[in-house]
Amino acid sequence: SPDGRLLQVEYAKKTVKQGTTAMGMVCKDGVLLLADKRISEPLIIAESVEKVSQIDDHIGATASGIVSDGRVLIDIGRVMAQKNRMTYDSPIDVLSLVKSICDIKQYYTQVGGARPFGVSLLIAGVNDQCELFLTDPTGIYFQYKATAIGDKDDEIKEMLSKEYKESITLNEGLKLALRILRKVQVKNFEIERIDAAIIRTSDKKFTKLSQSELNKLK
What we know:
The protein is α+β, with helices and mostly antiparallel strands. It has six helices and ten strands, in the order αββββααββββααββα.
């Protein structure tokens, strides 16, 4: 626009704000991702909706905004991770993966005949240490100890800034995330709508949490 704003990118950011809520948290024994599936129809099979996805053994991601855009970027990330293993015989560094995905996002803010990716990603992983990154539609990224994207993210971040501690364990972190989500969603909160995964520092393995495991944390 004449005043120097990229309106399509701003619209993409607003799309993320209307997306499903997702949280990430770095804990002393690992990193976690948690997202609301926002199941809109009673006949949908909840287990078929995946909001937290595995990129590599040691990396996971969740998206908010246009979920199909997020799925494409996660698939691209998976290919990058496999190429790194084939080329260097080692797991990809989390930051390298984030930078590569953000390069793609940034490219689509300036190329003609295409629109920006209307999605933010939370990418979490464990290499030498636990790391959590947020990427937004502009192609920039930030590293966080704990953060949220999507609907009511400002409220959630305010609660996280008060209650999050670096000494928190994965179990305590999951309980905190569920408690915060229950506060902001009020009547809409249902444990069946939650998708969550953890990556422990001990084994560096992406692990999805089952419904029964989440029920124990309520």
